[in-house]
Structures are given as structure tokens and as C-alpha cells.
Amino acid sequence: MSEDSVRVERAALETAREPNKALALLRSSVGRNLGLVIALLLVCLVGVVTAGDRFATSANALTILGSATTVGVVSIGMTFVIIGGGIDLSVGAIVALSSVWCTTLATQNMAEDTHWIVMVFAALAVGAGCGLVNGLLISYGRIVPFVMTLAMLASARGLAQIISNRKTQIVRDGAFADFATTEILGIEVYIWVFFLVAVAGWILLNRTTFGRRTVAVGGNPEAARLAGIPVKRHTVYLYVLVGVCSGIAALMLIARTTTGSATHGTLLELDAIAAVVIGGTLLTGGRGTIVGTVIGVLIFMTLNNIFILNNRSISEQELLKGAVIVVAVLLQQRLASRSSTT
Q1: What is the DSSP string of 63-106?
Q2: Strand runs (DSSP E) across 204-297, as ranges?
Q3: Strand stretches in 241-331, DSSP E
Q4: pTM of the prediction?
Q5: Rounded to whole angstroms, how far apart are CA atoms 290 and 204?
Q6: Confidence check: pLDDT of 16 > 50
């Protein structure tokens, strides 16, 4: 074999051993988030082209942010659950139950006698309680998360209907309504709450032992157990966390509508799971980012806004959501298969 042939073969072997830098960037959290930002900008460009001045206004931007708050807060909690290897289909029903429970006459009378913060505690307690039931039965009862949370979906929605007698409950506490309509720097308070929840979620996932344990449990539960992580107890914590986020989302809905209703949160679980998947979180667990989830929420809410401005039907919006979820999962699988072969 000639020296030139040897050099060519050696160069080919070295090239094969070198990692694909572009693929490595796409698989990194920075690369995924950069891709999501580009996708969001493209969606905004579509909005400008199709809706013109109606889309490209500061008021419409605040409308998109306002519509993203409820889904966004639930999606933050859902991100932790999915990274931890679980799923929660009951978040929408928990939102409904929390909104109904904290707007009952008894709760509102207690709030009038003391402070409206009682309503806040009631919503958070109901959300945490539902999450605790989910977590305990999934971890220690060994019920599959899909089945358990599906059962909670039906039970929580049914209980909300029983408590409210299928009627909308009006918030009578003026102080709560005044606080809910407060603006800080021209932005509604519930948008600031979403921002604070997102920041807290990012810190919890990326800067604490809890976040590292969540990734470990979702990536390999058995290895996490052998490393000394209390997997079952940690799983319970994850479902309590998403339950608390559902309680916060219920308070946001109450703030925006001044009502508690058993119909609140309908199909909210679909929007939350879709945003989390679009944000790059693996449905199999072990990987995900809060930043990606927030951008995923904004992408979906911007698409919804564009559909509304162009007088498109809700059915078309739901069809688009389903298609985007499928595309996102296919892309995840393709990147994962390439990662395993390099």
C-alpha cells in the first residue's frame, strides 16, 4: 500500500473519531434553547406577516404573556415531574378543584374575617394535597403514573363539580380582587408571579441537590437508589411540587376571571405537556430545562394568538398542537439515536 493511501485511511479514521460539533451543539441545552429562540422569532415573523399591526404591539405582547401565565406555571411543575420520569394528567382538574375550594362561601367568609391570604393558602393546600395523593400512590402503591393521574383527573374534576354544584362561584373579597388587578411597572401582577416561579424553578433544578436528584431519578432510578437517593420519597416531592404549581395557576385564573369554576383548567394538561416537550424535556426522563419550557410556552401562546387574530377556529389550534407535539417527539428520538451511534 502506498504512503498516500495510508495517509488517506489514517485521516479518514481520525475524522470518524472526531465528534460532530454541530450535532453536539444541538444536543446541548444551549443549542436546544437557541433553536427554540429562533423558532419563537420565526413564529413572531409569521404573526407580523399575517396579522400586521394587530400583532406587533406592546399591548398584544402583554396579552400573550398574560395568557401564558397559567399554562406556564403548571408547565414549570410538569417539567420536574417529566424529568423525574413521571407524568401528570391531572393538573387541569387540580386547578379546577383548587379554584372552587378557595372560592366557596366558607372560605371567602373566613377570608373576610381575617385576610384574603386565606384563599391563597386554601388553593395551595388543595393542590399540594392532590399532588401528595398522586405521589404516595405512585411511589408506594406502585400505580403507574399515567393511570394514577388519570384517576385523579376524574376524581378532582368530579369533586369540584360536587362542591360548586356545577355553578360558577364569584369572588366577593374586594381586597383580593384589588390585589389581583395590581400592575407593577405597567405589567399585571400575575405575569410577575409567573416570572418569579420560573426563576425559582430554574434555581431549584440547576443550583440545588433537589434538581440533581431529579435528573438522576429520571435518568436511572435503580442507579439513583444505589447511590443513596430516596427515589420513592423524591418522587412524592415532585408530585407535590406540580400540585403546588397547579394551586398557583388556580389563583391566577381566579385573579383574571374573579371566579372559581369546575370548568377551569380544561385540557390544561395537554398544553403543559406540549410546552414541556417542545422545550426539549425528554418524555423518558433524565433531561430538561426550565428555560426551554418557558420558551415552549411562549411559542404555543404566540401561535394561539396568531390563530385568534386571523379568526381561525379552536379546532385548528388543537390540531396544530397535536402536530407540533408529534414533530417534537420525532426530533427528540432522532437526536437520541444519533447520540447513541456517535
Answers
A1: HHHHHHHHHHHHHHHHHHHHHTT---S-HHHHHHHHHHHTTSHH
A2: 259-260
A3: 259-260
A4: 0.87
A5: 10
A6: no
